[in-house]
Design a protein that fits this description.
The structure is a homodimer.
Chain A (H helix, E strand, L loop, with lengths): L9 E5 H18 L3 E4 L6 H9 L4 E3 L3 H9 L4 E4 L6 H11 L3 E6 L2 H14 L3 E7 L11 H13 L3 E8 L7 H13 L6 E5 L4 H6 L4 E4 L2 H4 L17 E12 L2 E4 L3 H4 L8 E3 L6 E5 L4 E4 L12 E6 L2 H5 L4 E6 L2 E7 L8
Parallel strand pairs in A: 1-16, 2-3, 2-9, 3-4, 4-5, 5-6, 6-7, 7-8, 8-9
Antiparallel strand pairs in A: 1-10, 10-11, 10-15, 11-14, 12-15, 13-14, 16-17
Helix pairs in contact in A: 3-4, 4-5, 6-7
Chain lengths: 347, 347
């Protein structure tokens, strides 16, 4: 089966390019001396996670329990969920995983830690816990080193939990005083801090500079751009993921319509929506739910119904999350059809 | 099972409200005297389509072949795909459906019509065809009545096709001269025009005024707003669909974090992202991929980790399309768990 045999729209992945991105990031982190934990939210495909681990990653991060369930079921053994797991329905699912794999979660409140402790103690297993620090990302996280110390003491005393360390996102220079003070306070209280986890593709060397014990990176699989500079956001040689589309209408000389819109590419402000590889001067001017609108007025090429175009979407992760499957290929031959296993598992 | 038993985030549907929306729209169209064809893209759930037909709809419209396959497999017998079906992989799927249900498609080019004709003639079946007219929507569609006449003559002569009529989107007053002239020209050439199809929830009475033979409406199932006025875009009494969420973090007094972000709600510019039913003065200020950010500074309520909130998302259709299943309930009791059958079937 070749790419020409595929119906459209289809997410296609150049495996040579993806493998190179995986290899290069592993090598980059090895040289830096910072352990790499790969974030599976970017793909939700267990086999890709296994390739990343084979290349040298120490384990994976999953943003949702539903993703983690998919990864454990596929044999992944070391998973960090950098997310507050709240409520008995979720903590029960978490302990099921903790009996089968090394599970670590992040918490930023006593309530969340207590819920996990109650469940784990009742189920006779242990869950590793990091405290999330809000070092300026303004999302989750405790607000001060002293608050982290208070919470660390409570977690260290809770049954069913292993206090493991701290995490933050993203890894930035501004995080240094908060991180350093927190680790100093917790260690000063006699509580070991084994893990200091930071994140964000492109922040690997900063993670090393901040003396972190691991860096979480995910989007490098698709974009491969952060370590080569953000200036060329859609550099084609580094982007293995494309959406193969078909022109279904050319109603006027300056307009062509693709067979995919917001439910194929994800709507993601601001524009541009993506780049047409074959004709970069054809601009994706808008999207309906199922149609992509091309402004071809700056294009000398005359588009025809039935013509196939490949599009590098702006946000590869959100795009892939809309597709039941994707197609990995090398030099035009389809080598694998991957179900997007974690898709739709929002819980 | 009650709503309290559900893990979050979960799409929940108040069936009493949904049934009322379905009943009211059917009654509205009956009184107007305009046949209603319901658009399944809004939900992608066959049982809801069957309820809409039971309430009086003449059939359904599906925006993609993948949706139509789901509906035919669920026993729906009259389907319009108002979309150019292009390429042999798709035309083959179309004729498979045409042997099992009454299938009508829209085309706006000879190339698209010819592809369907070749397939249908070869497969020994017939496909009904409408010509799409661009009456100002500036998406697909032929550009002038004379062009429509030319195409109608060609379609009428193609084996395997039944020329059935014309369609446009949306139904607006500006469409009148284009529609009237086209129908006059085609009928003048001795070709019957049995169907004149228009679309858009809220355009039902305009469809009647334009002498259309049917109106395609979809989003009324969720929003129920267009026929009661667009002024109150998220009027809660008409909105059966909500996302049940959990507060997973309250890092500061003016910030709360929900357990769903862009992959739960869909990112949909412009803001607002949606409304918190219990606390409308808590503003969804942003979304990460898996976190919802609440600005609670204008709120007297103190949010707590573990608290559940229901959110009316801005774009219900895009939101539902991200979930593997949804939960229909009455007065708090879960009555049905529906797989979102058409989700991810982008082809």
């Amino acid at each position: 089966m070749t790419l020409d045999d595929l119906d459209t729209p289809a997410v296609i992945i150049d495996l040579d390019v993806m493998d190179r991105n995986i290899r290069d990031m592993a090598e980059h982190c090895r040289k830096l001396g910072i352990p790499l934990r790969v974030h599976t939210k970017s793909h939700k495909i267990p086999e890709i996670a296994h390739r990343q681990i084979a290349a040298g990653a120490i384990g994976v991060a999953c943003q949702k329990l539903g993703d983690a369930e998919v990864m454990v079921a596929a044999g992944i053994q070391d998973i960090l969920i950098p997310y507050n797991i709240v409520g008995p329905r979720k903590t029960e699912r978490l302990t099921r995983l903790a009996k089968r794999a090394r599970m670590t979660v992040a918490v930023d409140s006593e309530a969340t830690a207590q819920g996990i402790s109650d469940q784990a103690a009742g189920d006779g297993c242990r869950v590793n816990v990091l405290i999330e620090l809000d070092t300026g990302g303004r999302r989750c996280g405790v607000q001060a080193p002293e608050a982290a110390l208070d919470l660390a003491k409570k977690i260290a005393a809770m049954p069913g939990l292993n206090f493991e360390g701290v995490m933050t996102y993203p890894s930035r220079p501004e995080a240094r005083p908060f991180l350093a003070k927190t680790v100093e306070l917790i260690r000063g209280a006699g509580i070991p801090v084994r893990t200091i986890s930071g994140g964000g593709t492109g922040h690997e060397s900063m993670a090393k500079e901040l003396d972190l014990t691991e860096t979480r990176s995910g989007s490098y699989v698709w974009e491969g751009l952060s370590r080569i500079g953000n200036s060329d956001h859609l550099h084609e040689n580094r982007c293995p993921l494309r959406v193969l589309t078909t022109v279904v209408s050319v109603p006027t000389p300056d307009r062509a319509i693709l067979d995919g819109g917001m439910k194929t590419f994800a709507s993601y402000p601001p524009k541009p929506y993506g780049r047409i590889v074959e004709h970069p001067d054809a601009r994706i001017s808008g999207m309906s739910v199922e149609h992509g609108h091309l402004d071809t007025s700056a294009c000398s090429h005359r588009f025809a119904v039935g013509e196939r175009l490949s599009v590098i979407p702006l946000h590869q992760e959100m795009c892939l999350n809309l597709h039941n499957e994707c197609y990995g290929y090398r030099k035009g031959d389809v080598e694998v059809i991957w179900p997007v296993a974690g898709m739709g598992r929002v819980k």
